[in-house]
């Protein structure tokens, strides 16, 4: 994944005894994490995969179901819609989240009193401190069509009330906005860090070449920031594809299926409708989907990500 | 690594600062270890008695009963039955689905509770798969229970029957009546509507409210959910999304506890079977609600719980909304004066049948303490116990005799009597449709209600999709 | 290194200086506009939080007041009194603090060790193992909760606080972050120490770990934030009231059928926010330095 990986391999392995000691150390260092991952994630996942070939309602013993749970997924339009929504949500949320965070990080770089800079940085990070479920309850208040503060603000500038939570188009927008509002602080922090690491000389060189403003950013800053962008987008995608709380509280997946996401369907299928096998199948498909998107990101990153 | 990033070396005053940091780090680590050790019992929960399953465990919805009342409930039971050790599990779920998720996980792990608080939504699912029929015990203790049944409307009892057997004793219920803002009525120059008002009276009232209301005012507000959403209108129009009939049986109960007038038409519990979303009367209901939305008399309904309604209602931004006795407690808790609003029955359409949801304790078939559990179930419906639990009117007690002027003198509307009269005056009033497949039915109904009212001419396609989803749901065994 | 990087002091080429004098006023305006824009975004960001706090300080009947009154006309702490009257806030806070604190510390340790191994040590199956760790981030908790419950039951841990802590200590995200962090450190440091005769553990403890403190702070703060607010796992894994964490306890405030007062509900939210804010404030400095110097290379 990174250039340092290969150097690691190239420079070690000189003396056998030492490298054996290093290997033992490595395994000891890894043991707590790998043991935990094995017991609390790998085993449950394998269990879920196995379960996806069974019918199980928790109350009675599981019965073998072959591939029928997977067949069910393709037959149920509402599940297909949920996967479509999840992908759409992921694209909208991650794009917006990265764009907002990047613009803010860049804007914050310019000259301004240091205390303002720090206050702003804390403000942008703050929503990350809150619980997604409780803040979604608050947001439901604020986005109410008739009495919400959001529509009141819009009304002040002459806009008609928006049916944020009750129209198919707007509901997705509301869920994305609430999600991004809470999450962008994380990408923002990554970008602030990444920007600070871009050597100053490169900016100066660019300035001497006459590059300013947007062009400077496009030609110099963004390429240099690309490793950070990759990390932010990988984590962003993995999180966004598992979105649950915001649509669950704000719209309950509605109106219709407009904001129903894969994890919502999974939860409802398992715990409300007692079809744990089918829910496991949804989980397996979602897992493969996330894996595929992440792999694609790393693949694309080879072309676009620029390492110093 | 052509241009290695500079290592994050500590800055100014390195040695002293690092030493300080290190000392601080050790200090913190020591403090952490000490407090971890001091709280070891807390971490392993070995400071909690009765976790080994030697007690009768009763699962309740944590939000339903004030935590302070919960301990009173247990202590009083303990005093009555010193031989039965009881443990109350407050499931801190925000809704029925989360609650059920928790119970199911416990069942999956073989540590199911003995008694579970179950609402109408889950009555038949529990009865079908998990619950213990109470018939023999009710017959055995008939003498003891006569007073209870005499105080409870037979419809509530029937809603807790499944295929001829009784599974729960109703503790509380809530019918969807109409709450009206006095502020809005005064502004409109209208009186509280009479008990026999019609749907057209209702529409006319909304129009008048709208005229006097101005900007930022919504005459009618409702929430899109199984209880209190579309269903009250379906019932008022004499229809339902699933065909409704009565299971045979149940005579053993009716003949023992109710006189002929009261037991007329009662059976062995409700059966909801064939989907009928394309029924002309169902479509009529949706067309009517769509016309209200279109005329600006109500907004498209939001999904989820209606918690954000109280502020809007109390400030006169909403004129009318469907709610049950529970809302009187909610409004009072929110600081709304009792003379700021009043209640009336739901308006008449083809009928004036109302819908309700009820709840009570169910015993699990797998319980090894069924007799002890039964004692708890009987205890839960004692009048003194219910009186203490429902002090704040956060629900409607299932016992008629508890609905008194005194109870509502501080926290209830002037017409508090509609809460129970809904049952007595309209005896066909029944539970929301909740077959064992209730989760799928609920999902389909709320989903397609939202799309039906989401756009003009959306009703017909949405009802066709609703019918399809309901058929799919009902084909499945749960 | 430091947070403010390209401020007014940056040295300039003579050409640029001239150009700069010419458009000084324009620049000032530009800066003012930019700061104003940032302030608007900051207001939007903390607006909902301010609204939450102010609603918790007034009666629910006023919760829909428009324009929203950010400073309540006649504030009252009665909602907070009610929270304390109804809940054993201190026990909830103790449980939450124990769980969250131990998870955060545990994650810092395990992620530090594993991240170091993945970045700077050499061993077989490095890539597939790292892939495996990453992959665990991709599984929603709802999928694994029933098997995890069964495993914990097998260990005799269900309905204990350890049930929340033990499975949460190994962290894919933290390991990922720490690996990226250690990758920015020169390998030569360790090699030099090795020549001086330091063993592998010594090298980690004395050379690399001290340099990684800021990175570990990130892992700790993020773990604290996440697990402090966690709801679903505690709901499923804890049963006794005495084991409830803050988010579970707060559910009681919602009242039967959601009839609890919104002010009281939000007072609970505000109370539970405080420790997370405190940790954030304490962790801000190392967090800032950590994130600034990590570079986070993919």
UniProtKB/TrEMBL annotation, chain A:
Transmembrane segments: 27-54, 87-108, 120-143, 170-192, 224-244, 279-298
Domain of life: Bacteria
Protein name as annotated: Sugar ABC transporter permease
Lipid bilayer topology: Multi-pass membrane protein
Keyword annotations of the record: Cell membrane, Membrane, Transmembrane, Transmembrane helix, Transport
Ranges for domain ABC transmembrane type-1: 83-297
Family per record: Belongs to the binding-protein-dependent transport system permease family.
Cell compartments where the protein resides: Cell membrane
InterPro entries to which the protein is assigned, alphabetical: ABC_transporter_permease, MetI-like, MetI-like_sf
Chief site of localization: membrane
Organism: Streptomyces endophyticus
UniProtKB/TrEMBL annotation, chain B:
Cellular location(s): Cell envelope
Keywords: Signal, Transport
Keyword Nucleus in record: no
InterPro entries assigned: Bact_solute-bd_prot1, SBP, TAT_signal
Family: Belongs to the bacterial solute-binding protein 1 family.
Stated name of the protein: Extracellular solute-binding protein
Organism the protein comes from: Streptomyces endophyticus
UniProtKB/TrEMBL annotation, chain C:
SUPFAM superfamilies the UniProt entry points to: MetI-like (SSF161098)
Domain ABC transmembrane type-1: 97-283
TM helices/strands, residue ranges: 35-54, 89-117, 129-152, 164-182, 203-228, 262-283
Stored Gene3D superfamilies: MetI-like
Membrane-related topology note: Multi-pass membrane protein
Endoplasmic reticulum found in the keyword field: no
Record-linked PROSITE patterns: ABC_TM1 (PS50928)
Subcellular location: Cell membrane
Superkingdom: Bacteria
Name listed for the protein in its UniProt record: Carbohydrate ABC transporter permease
Organism annotation: Streptomyces endophyticus
């Amino acid at each position: 994944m990174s250039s340092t990986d290969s150097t690691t391999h190239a420079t070690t392995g000189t003396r056998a005894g030492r490298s054996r000691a290093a290997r033992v150390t490595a395994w000891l260092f890894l043991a707590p994490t790998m043991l935990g991952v094995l017991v609390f994630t790998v085993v449950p996942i394998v269990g879920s995969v196995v379960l996806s070939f069974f019918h199980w309602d928790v109350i009675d013993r599981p019965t073998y179901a072959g591939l029928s749970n997977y067949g069910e997924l393709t037959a149920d339009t509402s599940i297909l819609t949920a996967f479509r929504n999840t992908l759409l949500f992921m694209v909208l949320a991650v794009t917006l989240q990265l764009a907002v965070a990047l613009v803010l990080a860049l804007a914050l770089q310019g000259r301004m009193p240091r205390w303002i800079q720090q206050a702003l940085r804390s403000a942008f990070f703050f929503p990350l401190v809150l619980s997604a479920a409780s803040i979604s309850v608050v947001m439901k208040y604020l986005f109410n069509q008739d009495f919400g503060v959001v529509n009141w603000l819009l009304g002040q500038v002459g806009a008609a009330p928006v049916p944020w939570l009750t129209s198919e188009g707007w509901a997705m927008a509301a869920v994305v906005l609430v999600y991004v509002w809470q999450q962008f602080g994380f990408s923002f922090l990554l970008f602030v860090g990444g920007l600070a690491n871009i050597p100053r000389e490169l900016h100066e060189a660019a300035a001497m070449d006459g590059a300013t403003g947007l062009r400077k950013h496009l030609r110099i800053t963004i390429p240099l920031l690309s490793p950070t962008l990759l990390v932010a987008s990988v984590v962003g995608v993995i999180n966004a594809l598992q979105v649950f709380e915001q649509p669950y509280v704000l719209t309950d997946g509605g109106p219709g299926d407009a904001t129903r996401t894969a994890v919502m369907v999974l939860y409802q299928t398992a715990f409300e409708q007692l079809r744990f096998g089918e829910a496991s199948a949804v989980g397996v498909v979602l897992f493969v989907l996330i894996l595929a998107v992440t792999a694609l990101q790393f693949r694309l990153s080879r072309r676009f990500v620029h390492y110093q | 690594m052509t241009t290695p990033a500079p290592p994050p070396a500590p800055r100014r005053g390195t040695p002293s600062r690092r030493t300080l940091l290190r000392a601080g780090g050790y200090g913190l680590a020591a403090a952490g270890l000490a407090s971890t050790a001091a709280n070891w019992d807390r971490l392993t929960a070995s400071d909690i008695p009765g976790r080994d399953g030697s007690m009768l465990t009763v699962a309740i919805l944590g939000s339903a009963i004030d935590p302070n009342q919960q301990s009173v409930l247990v202590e009083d039971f303990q005093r009555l039955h010193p031989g039965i050790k009881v443990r109350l599990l407050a499931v801190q779920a925000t809704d029925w689905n989360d609650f059920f998720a928790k119970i199911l996980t416990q069942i999956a792990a073989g540590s199911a509770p003995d008694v579970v608080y179950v609402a109408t939504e889950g009555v038949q699912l529990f009865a079908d798969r998990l619950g213990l029929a109470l018939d023999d015990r009710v017959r055995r203790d008939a003498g003891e229970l006569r007073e209870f049944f005499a105080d409870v409307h037979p419809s509530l009892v029937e809603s807790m029957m499944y295929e001829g057997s009784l599974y729960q004793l109703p503790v509380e219920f809530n019918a969807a009546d109409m709450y009206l803002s006095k502020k809005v009525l005064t502004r409109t120059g209208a009186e509280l509507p009479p008990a026999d008002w019609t749907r057209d009276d209702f529409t006319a009232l909304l129009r008048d409210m709208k005229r006097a209301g101005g900007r930022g005012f919504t005459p009618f507000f409702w929430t899109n959910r199984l209880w209190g959403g579309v269903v009250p209108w379906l019932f008022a129009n004499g229809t339902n999304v699933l065909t409704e009939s009565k299971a045979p049986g149940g005579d053993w109960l009716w003949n023992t506890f109710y006189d002929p007038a009261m037991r007329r038409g009662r059976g062995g519990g409700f059966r909801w079977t064939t989907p009928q979303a394309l029924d002309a009367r169902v479509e009529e209901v949706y067309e009517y609600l769509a016309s209200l939305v279109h005329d600006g008399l109500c907004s498209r309904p939001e999904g989820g719980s209606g918690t954000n309604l109280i502020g809007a209602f109390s400030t006169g931004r909403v004129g009318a909304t469907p709610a049950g006795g529970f809302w009187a407690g909610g409004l009072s808790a929110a600081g709304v004066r009792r003379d700021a609003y009043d209640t009336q029955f739901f308006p008449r359409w083809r009928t004036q049948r109302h819908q309700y949801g009820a709840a009570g304790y169910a015993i699990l078939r797998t319980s090894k303490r069924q007799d002890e559990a039964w004692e708890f179930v009987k205890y839960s419906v004692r009048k003194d116990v219910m009186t203490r639990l429902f002090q704040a009117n956060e629900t409607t007690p299932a016992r008629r005799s508890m609905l008194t002027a005194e109870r509502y003198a501080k926290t209830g509307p002037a017409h508090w009597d509609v809460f129970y009269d809904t049952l007595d005056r309209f005896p066909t009033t029944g539970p929301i449709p909740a077959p064992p497949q209730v989760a799928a039915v609920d999902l389909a109904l709320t989903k397609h209600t939202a799309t039906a009212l989401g756009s003009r001419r959306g009703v017909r396609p949405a009802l066709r999709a609703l019918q399809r989803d309901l058929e799919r749901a009902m084909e499945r065994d749960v | 290194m430091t947070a403010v990087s390209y401020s007014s002091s940056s040295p300039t080429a003579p050409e640029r200086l001239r150009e700069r004098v010419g458009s000084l006023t324009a620049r000032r305006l530009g800066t003012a506009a930019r700061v104003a824009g940032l302030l608007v975004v900051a207001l939007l960001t903390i607006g909902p939080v301010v609204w939450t706090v102010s609603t918790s300080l007034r009666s629910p009947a006023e919760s829909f007041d428009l324009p929203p009154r950010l400073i309540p006309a006649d504030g009252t702490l009665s909602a907070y009194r009610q929270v304390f009257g109804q809940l054993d806030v201190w026990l909830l806070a103790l449980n939450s603090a124990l769980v969250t604190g131990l998870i955060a510390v545990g994650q810092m340790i395990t992620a530090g060790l594993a991240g170091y191994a993945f970045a700077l040590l050499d061993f077989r199956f490095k890539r597939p193992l790292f892939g495996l760790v990453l992959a665990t981030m991709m599984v929603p908790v709802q999928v694994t909760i029933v098997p995890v419950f069964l495993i914990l039951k097998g260990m005799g841990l269900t309905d204990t606080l350890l049930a929340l802590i033990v499975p949460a200590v190994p962290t894919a995200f933290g390991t990922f972050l720490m690996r990226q962090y250690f990758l920015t450190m020169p390998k030569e440091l360790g090699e030099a120490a090795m020549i001086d005769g330091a063993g592998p553990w010594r090298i980690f403890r004395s050379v690399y770990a001290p340099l990684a403190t800021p990175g570990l702070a990130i892992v700790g703060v993020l773990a604290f934030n996440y697990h402090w607010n966690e709801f679903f796992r505690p709901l499923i894994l804890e049963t006794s009231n005495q084991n409830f964490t803050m988010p579970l306890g707060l559910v009681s405030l919602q009242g039967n059928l959601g009839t609890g007062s919104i002010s009281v509900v939000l007072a609970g939210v505000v109370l539970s926010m405080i420790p997370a804010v405190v940790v954030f404030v304490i962790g801000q400095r190392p967090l800032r330095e950590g994130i600034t110097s990590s570079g986070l290379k993919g």
